Amino acid sequence: MKLSQGLVRRSLDGHTWLGLLVGALMYVVCLTGTLAVFYPELERWEQPAIVESTTWDPEVLEAGFNQFLSDPERLTPHMSLYLPTADFPRARMANEQAAWLVGADGLPGERERHPFTHLLTKVHLYLTLPESWGMILVSALGALLLALVVSGFLAHPRLVRDAFLFRWGRGDRLEQVDLHNRLSVWASPFYLVIAVTGAWFGLVLPLVGGATALTGESRSAIVASVFGEEPEVHGGPKVELVRAFATLKAKYPTAAPISVTVHEANRPGRFFEVSARHPGRLIWSENYHFGMQGNYLGRVGFSDDGFGKQVAYSMYRLHFGHFDGLASKLLYAALGFALTVVSASGVNIWLARRNRRDALDLLWPGLVWGFPLALVTCALLSTTGFAVGPGGLWGMTALAMAAAVAVGDTRRVGQLLRGALAATCLALVSVHALRYGMSALASAATGVNGALLATALLLALGNLRRRGAAARATSLALKT
What we know:
The protein is α+β, with helices and mostly antiparallel strands. Helices cover 62% and strands 8% of the residues. It contains 16 helices and 8 strands. It has helices at residues 5-36, 39-46, 58-69, 115-126, 131-155, 172-186, 188-215, 219-227, 241-251, 307-312, 315-320, 325-353, 360-383, 390-407, 410-436, 443-479; strands at 79-82, 92-94, 99-102, 108-111, 256-263, 271-277, 286-290, 296-299. Helix 6 (172-186) runs antiparallel to helix 12. The longest helix is centred in the C-terminal third of the chain and has 37 residues, at 443-479. The relative contact order is 0.11.
């Protein structure tokens, strides 16, 4: 089907202005989302000295969890036990304020600390704004990403036909155009998945409000129809996990428990819920209700009780790629990085096409390279024991953008900030190794530190390549 020139022109204008409207926020959300795919590994990297294991003894954990529940200083309405898994081989106990790592004795020990990972995920989920408003804004970006994908295809009717067209060495602008368009085509199915699932998280509450208005049902009734109703029970003083796990194994042999949550833990009518994974399913878990004595009360039905429930509880794993171990994480990281590059290159193209040069040409590379520099600097400060927070992150980003304006040359800005980022990555690996010794080589820590070293190497090589290209261009200009 041949598109009219008018539709193509309007689509291109809409795509351009929409991209500019959300370009900076989209870049920040995409970059942090790419890194947040590995949030379990980052949490383990922040506390690398913990002994890890995927095995657990239900009797030992039952005794330890009951002691945890009996501590009045820790008691909150929801108390959780997280079982070790291949993705996160550490048992933890948590209330609504904090979490503690569980030792071999089944008791909560060292407090879980991962301030940098918490900051990273807070940027991705809320842009460090108040949670309700921040999540709605980030989810709106998901909806706008969907519009960008559609308008991009309408604005470039030859996009698929030219899927393998690259014009390297023909100038920065053409390289940026081809990079933007090729990555947009190749990974467009992934972008659509990210757009839809990202929009879901923040817009689900407004959707519930709309359904309430349309159907006349109460908000609690609509939420319960998707996420299940809480059973009415009379709780006992202790949680009997051994009996519950045996019952679950007998009824659902393939279910693999991942967590236990005691609801209304500070009230008489408490009960507990076992969340369990089902092999080959995208749902995060099926949730099984038990009385405190371990008597089975029923399940929510995420695994087979209607298409809507299954879709709702599959959104998380689809969005973050946590469904096929390390392989799916690496795939999502590569595709997420591609989307980050698309976000940055779209603004680069617009800047290159302008007839004038001003502070925007400097502020943009200041953000593109200054924000990851601020992120790694926050990780470095956190590793050395300093507190990190949103103020420091955004302050350092603003400082990098101000420095970019002060330098006054876009190429020089990129080289300086990339060099600073490479040096900070090396410093972070060094400080991590000095603080944790051999534990810096343990399990997930090896992967994170290896990725930091690889990033530093690629940035250094990229700077050398650009300097060589600039020198050749200067030499050629002098000869002519």
